Give the backbone structure.
Amino acid sequence: MRRIWRAALVIWLAVVSAAAAPGPQRIVSLSPNTTEILYGIGAFDRVVGVTVYDKYPPAVSKLPRVGGWQNSNIEKIVELHPDLVVLTQAQVPFIADQLKAFGLKTAVAPSQSLADVFSAIQVLGAATGNEREAAELSRKTRATLDDVRARTRGLAPRTVLLAVSRTPGALRDLYVATQGSFLIDLVEIAGGRSVTEPGRNGYARISKEAIVALDPELILDLLPGLTSPLGEDVKQAWSDLPELRAVRNGRVYAIHEEFVGHPSQFIAETAKVFARIIHPEAYSAGRP
């Protein structure tokens, strides 16, 4: 009987020890959206390195930078002695082999579709030991998206072109979000309908001629951070296509919020930004 109890005690202690084992204590994040998620699930206090593009939370200003999004500096990463490196699925071709060569543990966050964002929150929650916080972050994010969806339900969808990149001040090298991108999922939640066809990885380069043929009711132009009075006039840039309904009707909108374009919990705020532009009536009459 004593042997049985002793064996049971050993098993119990092993289970308790495993459950109490600390999660990673030195995390390097290789994308702004993963840093945002780490903050959202309460694991940011263990982040020791971020990219040159990270701006949120404000405390990232005090952290070492380990390069850009496509050109992470493996030497700087190794020097930080991380026990977890977090990156997005899209970054795998650029850095994953190098991280593996140095024996670094990684957590890969999917980032293309809306469903991927919630998967990323779950993945990082599991990787950091913050599963409960991750579940709560997902719940709050879904609740905000549901609120936006409820506000725009029943309203006539408005056709939208969502520009994500172009030459400043001109309509050259223009890229748009397409079906398959989380951004288009958010446009639809906000009561819009994308005019573009599905593209590779949710984004595609587009010509001015193709835009004229699509003739959207609204154009949303992502220009994160360009809020200076000396910044470009987005309507002036698009005046190169006066035949577009959106241009004629003054429905070309610059979107300056830094978080728009980040597949993190900020998708909820992005949906609200889109909805206030696409269907301002959904937020009228004193509705918050």
